[in-house]
Every structure is written in C-alpha cells, then in structure tokens.
Amino acid sequence: MAERLPFIGLEREQRILEDALRRRKSLVLLGRAGSGKTALLEWARQLPARCGTLVYVPRFNTPHGLLLTIAQELIRCGHRPLQRLASSGPGWERWLKRQTSSHLRGLLWQAFEQAPAGILLDHLNGPGHAVYRFLQRLYFTPGMVLIGAARDQQRLGELRRLFWDPKQMVCVQPLSEQEALRLFEAAAEFFGLNELELEDFREKVLESARGNPGEIVEMCRLASGARYRSGRHIQFSLIRIELKMAQLE
C-alpha cells in the first residue's frame, strides 16, 4: 500500500535505537509478537545517512540463507568493497547462489572490515553456533553494529553469548491507553471502518490488545473483511479466534 499508518508510540525505543546506530552500539529488541519490533526496524531503515549503511534481514532459516541475504542487500545498495570482491556484473545473483558458505563468510568479513555497516536481524528464532561464529567476528569489527529482534531471550539462541549484557536489551513497552486509542482510530480510518458500529468493537479491541500495536492493527484489518461482519456489526469473537490461530503458527 502506498499509504501507511502513522507511527504511534514507542518514542523511547526510537530514541534508544537511533542512538545505538549513531554510536555503533549493538543491542537487541525484545517483545511479544505484534509489540512493534518490526515497525521499529523498518523505521530505522529510513534514518538519515549519518547512521550508515543498514542491511535489513527480515528472517532466515539457515546460516547460508543469512549470508546470501546480507550479500544480496549489500550489492543492491552499492556497497563498494563487496562489489569489488564479488562478481557484481549483470549475473551477480546467479554467481552468489553458486558460492559456498565458507567463501561468502570470507567475502563479507573482508567487505565489512573495509566499510562497516549495520545489520538489522528481525524475527530471530534460536540461531545456532554457525550464525553465532559469523556474527561474533562482525560484532567485534570496529564500526559494525548489530541490531537483533526476538520475542524473548530464549529465541536469541546462541546469540545470547553476544547479547548477554542487560544494558544491550531493550524490552519494547506496550502503548499507553491514549496511544492505543489513537492507533485504533487511525487504523479504523485506514481500513474504512468508520461506517460500521465501532463502540463495542473499539472497547473489546483495546481491552484484548493490552497496548499491543500489532494486535490493534491486525484486528482492524480483519474487520475490513466481509466475513467478519453482520450488517454494520463487527463479529469480534471470530476476529479474536483468527488472531490467536495466527499467533500459534
């Protein structure tokens, strides 16, 4: 969608994240699903150039997948050291896919030593030893910054050996009542719900979400579908079941 919902709340987390990127200090965002971690990382990608080159990794299933994603994003954004080290001509994507993990690790280590950058690692879910060893070297490379996002410390997996200091952990806080209400009203307008009966739906959404921005937005999005309506009334119970099922996946 060309339009986006306004970024409401999480000002404290925004300040901490921007400061970390500018000072090249690694940290990890912790919070339950829908708490705003992905929104914060996407916001960080739009920061001024003085925060340096930022590579966003939405998720990865294997260590090799992580290496490929980082290399692809670096070449796309014009990271000159990697472009010099790699075959970055017209067939660079095919060339990358033919490389072994050990070769890609070496290329990325060399490239980042020449031109450090920031890596935003979203949806961390128990990365193992191979990922830890690759990121460990980057963690200690001058000028590099790693920003991770996970639901809890357990999902950091082996990366808990890097993010062990409580000062590096930012627990994403729920929205205040006023912020949650502002977000609901913005989402209701965004998804075209203002012609429906919203009083009861609003109350149930805010009570159920408990300040979780992702849940507020998702429940409003679902409410825009005809299957969750009966006339002008929104069937909240069906939406809540749908949301709970999605969170279990």
The ordered string of helix (H) and strand (E) elements is: HEHEHHHHEHEEHHHEEH
In total, the number of domains comes to 2
Weakly predicted, low-confidence segments:
none
**What is the spatial order of strands in the main beta sheet?**
2-3-4-1-5
CATH architecture name of the largest domain = 3-Layer(aba) Sandwich
Q: How large, in whole angstroms, is the Cα Rg?
A: 21 Å
Biggest sheet: strands, sense, closure?
A: 5 strands, parallel
Question: What is the overall pLDDT average?
Answer: 92
The name CATH uses for the topology of the largest domain is Rossmann fold
Kindly state the number of beta strands: 7
Assess the beta-strand content as a share of residues.
5-15%
The CATH homologous superfamily of the largest domain is termed: P-loop containing nucleotide triphosphate hydrolases
